Amino acid sequence: MQIAERGRVVDDVADQIGNTPTVDISQFSPNPDVSLFAKLESFNPTGSVKDRVALSLIDQAERDGLLVRGSGGVILEPTSGNTGIGLALIGRLRGYQVKAVMPESVSTERVQLLQGFGAEVIFSAAEKGTNESINVAKELAHENPSYFMPYQYGNKANPQSHYVATGPEIVRDVPDVDMFVAGLGTGGTLMGVGKALREHNPNAKIVAAAPHPDDKVQGLRSIEHGFIPPILDLDALDARIMVEAEESFFWTRKLLLDAGIFVGVSSGAVLASAIRAARRLESGTIVMLFADGGWKYLSTGIYTRDWSDIQNEVEGQTWW
Ligand SMILES: Cc1ncc(COP(=O)(O)O)c(C=O)c1O
């Protein structure tokens, strides 16, 4: 058995951000000529891709003089959870207080993780979704000018983290990528990785997995609700594939049962989108980014539910 190259001594856990593994899961491909690879961002210290973004946002703010290490400065961010958890980690390591504004409906695990890392959670009205978290955070920042709001939706340091690291890691690890599929939240992953991949192969297709406008898939957002993050350039996307929540849950569970891959629900949406895309391609290589691990979603019950009742329907939509 080969031992993976992860056993190295680091100064602190932030040094373990990035360089995540990629797994060949072509067994999920409906097309024998299309390979599917999944990059597992759950291997980051807090279990999500957003550790990369949090580190990049804080590094940039320090370079710009907006944050000073050890100063106890306050970082305030509207977040569906993962970015807040990443910020909370880096905040602990560098002496900042972190306040995260989230819809009241987020999973209890997210709230507990944030509080566990010492962050303060501020709730916005659940029924108004993440757009309301953004409004509340903006108001609070306005009332408290000393707070620093990284604002991942509009901060170039977000896509930049993917341009300088996530994308190049994919180019290094998977030869000849024809298509990249990731969930659409802020758009940071798709923009940053997309730019890096296209520099390597101008024909690489960049595809977003988006939730159905009426559905909630934690971590993803629908631009149909009217808010287009400033960092998101829709023209840079080749396609947006809409996935129903149930379909995302089905594939999330199947990933665990058939491949032992324990991921969050947005990864199920990404796999569903990639399966649809694979059907349309003649041949090629698709790389998917699985944004986080499943731990934060255990309380939803999706990993223990029997999904056989919707299997035919879902496989009819996404399978051959
Ligand atoms: C679980 C999960 N998946 C996907 C995304 C989307 O990533 P991005 O913000 O880079 O578009 C997020 C973002 O919050 C997320 O938390």
TrEMBL record:
<dbReference type="InterPro" id="IPR036052">
    <property type="entry name" value="TrpB-like_PALP_sf"/>
</dbReference>
<feature type="domain" description="Tryptophan synthase beta chain-like PALP">
    <location>
        <begin position="14"/>
        <end position="292"/>
    </location>
</feature>
<dbReference type="InterPro" id="IPR050214">
    <property type="entry name" value="Cys_Synth/Cystath_Beta-Synth"/>
</dbReference>
<keyword id="KW-0028">Amino-acid biosynthesis</keyword>
<dbReference type="Pfam" id="PF00291">
    <property type="entry name" value="PALP"/>
</dbReference>
<dbReference type="GO" id="GO:0006535">
    <property type="term" value="P:cysteine biosynthetic process from serine"/>
</dbReference>
<keyword id="KW-0808">Transferase</keyword>
<dbReference type="InterPro" id="IPR001216">
    <property type="entry name" value="P-phosphate_BS"/>
</dbReference>
<keyword id="KW-0663">Pyridoxal phosphate</keyword>
<keyword id="KW-0198">Cysteine biosynthesis</keyword>
<dbReference type="InterPro" id="IPR001926">
    <property type="entry name" value="TrpB-like_PALP"/>
</dbReference>
<dbReference type="GO" id="GO:0016740">
    <property type="term" value="F:transferase activity"/>
</dbReference>
<comment type="similarity">
    <text>Belongs to the cysteine synthase/cystathionine beta-synthase family.</text>
</comment>
<protein>
    <submittedName>
        <fullName>O-phosphoserine sulfhydrylase</fullName>
    </submittedName>
</protein>
